[in-house]
Amino acid sequence: MRGPRIVLLGVVLFAGACALASAEPSPSPTPPGSVTPAVAPAEPAGVEHLEHLVFIVQENRSFDHYFGTYPGVDGLPRDAQGRISVCIPNPYLGRCARAYRTDAQRAWGGPHGEKDAAVDINHGKMNGFARALRDKPNKCWTEPTMPSCRGMVGPQLQPDVVSYHTARSIPNYWAYARNYVLQDRMFGPTDSWTLPAHLYLMSAWSASCEDPTDVTTCTSNVDLGDPADVWSYGEDPVYGWTDITRLLDDADVSWGYFVGNGTCWDPPCERTDEPWSSPARNPVPGFVESAATDLTDNILTHDRFLELAAADDLPTVSWIVPDSVGSEHPLGSATRIADGQAHVTRMINAVMRSELWDTSAIFVTWDDWGGFYDHVQPPVIDENGYGMRVPGLVISPYAKRGFIDHQTLTFDAYLKLIEDRFLGGQRLPLQGRPVVREEAFPFVLEDAFDFTQAPREPLILEPRP
Predict the structure, then answer these.
(1) Per the domain annotation, does 120 fall within a domain?
(2) Residues 133, 375, 336, CA angle at the centre, nearest 5°?
(3) Structural domain that includes position 306
(4) Residue 372: which CATH number?
(5) Local confidence pLDDT in tens for the 465 residues of the chain
(6) Residue 104 belongs to some domain of the structure
(7) Torsion of CA 6, 10, 12, 16, to 10 degrees
(8) Residue 403: strand pairing partners
């Protein structure tokens, strides 16, 4: 891996943000292709303890779907008697669809593109989730009485976009929340699907480029519906703007992007039956600047992450994206929640068992809402987002115990943390981005951490409780 191997783990470290007033930020323009000069940040006391950041990103679950009944959060709306009062219009039943608890391991969810988000949000009413479902035959929301729909609809035949889980079905995620930090205002970076979210994760932007070698031809695009705008394994790169790995390389900071064991991102490939990660979850080789370098020491497998953790040799910054089995992706796929939870738990356990635990921060989040109900209207930061609310966890020996972080956050907080901690405050170049998102909210790192406390003991959990 490039750069010094500093011991620093982190899943998804969210530094908080205060809600902005109506005025949007107006940063000074930066010439295309240039990099914002380093600015020495007012680094919070104690942040030097964090030498490894690990970001674990799963798929397609809203905050209310996973944590809507967690005590103390801004969760599912209730009536005066304390009963969950969510009941949204449902054109397929002729009556409203009431929120219901589920232990189902698989789900349909709903469509989750830019236009679907507008229907879901419905001008702030947050009640269009069932209306966004496509009117198609053999779908459980249109024909809920089919035998195959048992467990995929609610007790009143409501679609599972209004379902919610509790500790009974996702015990490890709730255990992490009880023992570390749960963020209840973590928003997806944009109202769209997996690829735009992962582009934002790595570069704070999603765009299409007429000429990928000329960043001035790149313009915002959070739909990416044209295949020409989407990079696939073996093709020439199409993302012409700068991602965070270039800045890390320039500063000799080690990093790793960890994908499913069966992933072959640089064909030709040998056949394997192991689960893989799609290009939508692994866009780094699709960036022109990244593709021009040797990424063989940076794009690595889940098994390699476990090996590096066992050897106390993780890179400074790690991103872990799911494979085709452990993603938790809905829409009738074969993935089970238990498989995703087990994958996440194994990664966290590996860090906790290593000598790196005392200098690590792990951040866990989900890339988009997957069409599932959430009652909080996303704030508007620029023309591209934010997106719908998703769960966020911060796990570290310095994380506050059982703390609920109410700061407004998205994946830009992860980038800002990396930039401030390891790049001297240098920002990604503005290029065609509407705003420098890392500066849009004053993310408060200390809100989730207590660096005055002695490092806490790890919480090793069974991957399949």
Answers:
(1) no
(2) 60
(3) 47-65+169-447
(4) 3.40.720.10
(5) 544 333 333 443 333 333 333 333 333 333 333 334 334 445 556 788 999 999 999 999 999 999 999 999 999 999 999 999 999 999 998 899 999 999 999 999 999 999 999 999 999 999 999 999 999 888 999 999 999 898 889 999 999 999 999 999 999 999 999 999 999 999 999 999 999 999 999 999 999 999 999 999 999 999 999 999 999 999 999 999 999 999 999 999 999 999 999 999 999 998 888 999 999 999 999 999 999 999 999 999 999 999 999 999 999 999 999 999 999 999 755 689 999 999 999 999 999 999 999 999 999 999 999 999 999 999 999 999 999 999 999 999 999 999 999 999 999 999 999 999 999 999 999 999 999 988 877 677 678 999 999 999 999 999 999
(6) no
(7) -80
(8) 181
Strand, coil or helix: what is 186? strand
Q: In one letter, which amino acid is 106?
A: R
Q: Indicate the number of domains in the chain.
A: 1
For the chain, how many residues are written?
A: 465
| SS3 assignment, position 359 | helix
The C-alpha atoms of residue 255 and residue 24 are separated, in whole angstroms, by 33
Dist CA 215 CA 203 (whole Å): 13
Q: Are strands 207-209 and 218-220 parallel, antiparallel or unpaired?
A: antiparallel
Cis status, amide bond into 386, omega within 30 of 0: yes
As a whole number of angstroms, the distance between CA 225 and CA 113 comes to 10
Q: Give Cα separations from 400 to 23, 55, 167, 405, 446 (angstroms).
A: 32, 18, 20, 10, 10
